[in-house]
Write a structure and sequence with these properties.
This protein is of the alpha+beta class. It is built from 22 helices and eight strands. It has helices spanning 18-31, 94-109, 127-136, 148-159, 168-172, 186-196, 211-228, 234-241, 246-250, 255-264, 269-279, 284-291, 307-318, 326-329, 372-391, 399-417, 424-432, 437-452, 454-457, 472-475, 478-491, 493-500, and strands at residues 5-7, 34-42, 45-52, 60-66, 71-79, 84-86, 116-118, 121-122. The strands form two sheets. A five-stranded antiparallel sheet has the order 3-2-4-5-6. Strands 1-7-8 form a three-stranded antiparallel sheet. Helix 1 packs antiparallel against helix 2 and helix 7 (211-228) runs antiparallel to helix 10. The longest helix has 20 residues, at 372-391. The mean pLDDT is 94.
Length: 502
């Protein structure tokens, strides 16, 4: 049991485009909070250091931890040389969302058909593509999802003999939520007729010169032919007809087949097949799998839709999906996110990710926009840091003592608050500069923050079974978040310089 993500396509990225594709994948993984670990052991303690995923040209990368979720799942990875991405169990939160976004990136790049799935269900949510457009500056649309017949046909034929025919719900998964206006047309009508039958088509209610009228007319012609030829292998004659070329169908002399032949000039072969299957009470998809590669594809269909409406639909389908900011994309509000929140936290606001949790990714652009509250907090911390530094003048400087005290403090914080891991770049930078007042003062400030927030952070003891089954108000409590945020500022040199001056 568990949640698995997948992509049904081939993941066949052209070799000349793999470097660009790899850069986009890594950016998604990085800004989505995917992390690697470096394990260190000092003074009898083991510790993990956070390393945002990075990739050498045409290299490979593996990861299993998400910074925002603060949880591990089965190892996922990307092979840039092959353009191949893989994953195991992915949970149902940030780790899952980021993996799913990578699969949507494959949809955008793949010239062939392929769909993003979670536990076998095709995902119809546009916000993954919206986040990709925001993060990469791209203008991807969902237009491939509107190759409706091709998409459902591929899906259905792969299931023949193993699963039941596709349901309406499964078909609708291909069409993005909020974009179903663009799904009208004959292909969508065919799918509805295949699933629901054509009993709704009655002569008195059909408007002439419409697609339903021609489908109904073809059905009547088939019914007449099958009724008159009950003693013969009438179905086989129909199958032989739809294997003929257009020229051959135009020259049909068999009076009884003449009407069906005329409809074959303006309707796709699949229409004749699904109508025949309906009349004979057979499975269309089983029949279609047997013959779809051998039937005609040379029909010349009428223009059932006005050019104005077709142009409107085309524009709607091909428009780029509006960008979705990272904090909005990573927002978690599922049923179990705040399940069984302890009484001690009742009445307090629920925790939702914001840009204040993304300080490590701040770069001065609008990718991370600090709140006024965060700005004030950092200014107050900077003031405290300055005071600590001034009071340290004349203190002895011992690099070995600094290393040990720094490490032991990090271990103590992790044991109390749980899963508080320093970034690799920050850890080694501090070790190399342990004799400098500003770094030593930053460590003292870290201890101060830890001591001041122990009362709020104590709620972490309420983690009962597993991290992902505990209310996020517990795992992401205010005290614990302050330590994560401070460590991320210390790891972001540009942001640290802005507020702390070193």
């Amino acid at each position: 049991m568990g949640t698995f993500g997948g992509y049904t396509g081939s993941m066949n990225i052209p070799e000349e485009k793999r470097d660009e594709f790899a850069r986009q994948v890594i950016r998604i993984l990085n800004y989505g909070g995917m992390m690697q670990f470096e394990r260190i052991s000092m003074y009898g303690h083991d510790m993990a250091l956070l390393k945002p995923v990075e990739l050498y040209p045409r290299g490979k990368v593996d990861f299993h931890f998400n910074y925002f979720e603060d949880d591990s799942w089965e190892t996922a990875g990307f092979d840039a040389d092959r353009g191949y991405f893989y994953s195991g169990k992915i949970g149902e939160r940030e780790f899952c969302d980021v993996v799913t976004a990578v699969h949507f990136l494959y949809e955008a790049w793949d010239e062939e058909l392929g769909f993003t799935e979670i536990n076998g269900d095709i995902i119809d949510d546009c916000h993954y593509t919206g986040w990709i457009n925001h993060l990469l500056g791209t203008k991807f649309s969902m237009k491939k999802r509107f190759r409706i017949w091709d998409n459902v046909e591929k899906y259905a034929l792969e299931r023949v003999g193993e699963y039941e025919d596709p349901t309406v719900g499964e078909v609708m998964q291909f069409i993005p939520i909020g974009m179903r206006y663009g799904a009208g047309g004959v292909e969508f009508s065919d799918l509805m007729y295949i699933m629901h039958g054509t009993e709704s088509l009655t002569e008195g209610e059909i408007e002439p010169d419409t697609y339903p009228a021609d489908v109904y007319g073809c059905k009547k012609a088939l019914e007449v032919f099958l009724r008159k030829n009950q003693e013969k292998d009438a179905v086989s004659q129909i199958w032989e007809l739809i294997k003929k070329t257009r020229c051959e169908r135009e020259k049909i002399k068999d009076i009884e087949l003449l009407d069906i032949g005329r409809f074959s000039l303006i309707l796709p072969a699949k229409v004749i097949v699904y109508l025949t299957a309906e009349i004979k009470e057979e499975s269309f998809w089983e029949r279609w799998k047997e013959m779809h590669e051998t039937v005609y594809h040379d029909e010349i269909m009428k223009e059932y839709t006005s050019q104005k409406l077709k142009a409107k639909r085309k524009k709607f389908i091909e428009k780029p999906i509006l960008p979705v900011r990272t904090s909005e994309f990573l927002h978690q509000d599922g049923y179990f996110i705040f399940y069984d929140t302890p009484e001690e936290l009742k009445g307090k606001p629920n925790y939702y990710i914001s840009d204040d949790d993304r300080l490590y990714w701040w770069d001065g652009t609008d990718e991370v926009i600090l709140s006024e509250k965060m700005d004030n907090w950092l200014r107050n911390l900077a003031h405290s840091h300055k005071e600590i530094s001034q009071n340290m003048v004349g203190e002895p400087e011992n690099a070995n003592d600094f290393l040990k005290n720094f490490l032991m403090l990090l271990v103590e914080i992790d044991q109390y608050y749980k899963r508080i891991l320093p970034f690799q770049n920050m850890f080694y930078e501090f070790l190399q500069n342990g004799s400098k007042t500003e770094y030593r003062a930053a460590v003292k400030l870290l201890k101060k923050i830890s001591d001041e927030n122990k009362e709020e952070g104590k709620i972490i003891e309420k983690v009962k079974y597993s991290w992902d089954l505990t209310s996020r108000n517990v795992t992401h409590n205010a005290g614990r978040l302050k330590l994560k945020r401070y460590l991320s500022v210390m790891a972001n040199r540009r942001l640290r310089e802005k507020y702390f001056g070193f």
